[in-house]
Amino acid sequence: MIKVFIADDQAMVREGFGALLGAQPDIVVVGDAADGAAAVTKARALAPDVVLMDVRMPVMDGLEA
Length: 65
What we know:
By secondary structure, this protein is an alpha/beta fold. The chain is 35% helix and 26% strand.
């Protein structure tokens, strides 16, 4: 299984990507975050294989994260 983490400040985008990716038989969405700082903290704890991250987010943008 490929573990994916989603970071985006828009809940609808997180939910949409989560549903799309979660429907794949070899992918599991392990978590999500609404800003870059939370994404860094959660991704460290969850150790995903892939992080799908928005570039423009509050607190810490995706490039800095």
